[in-house]
Design goal:
The protein is built from four helices and no strands. It is mostly helical and 52 residues long. The protein has one domain (2-50).
């Protein structure tokens, strides 16, 4: 299941974070990071998925 989350994190970072934590603070942080730059959103999403 983590592989699917990581694939979503690369394609659409907020979706990968949502699958991991739901509508928590990390989801909203990832939305902001993805708006400011796609790469920071990807890095944050993979970090959120990998830390659990």
């Amino acid at each position: 299941m983590d592989l699917i989350k990581i694939i979503f994190a690369i394609l659409l970072p907020p979706v990968g974070v949502f699958m991991e934590v739901g509508f928590g603070k990390h989801f909203w942080i990832n939305i902001i990071l993805t708006i400011f730059g796609y790469i920071p959103g990807i890095v944050h999403a993979i970090w959120v998925i990998a830390r659990k």
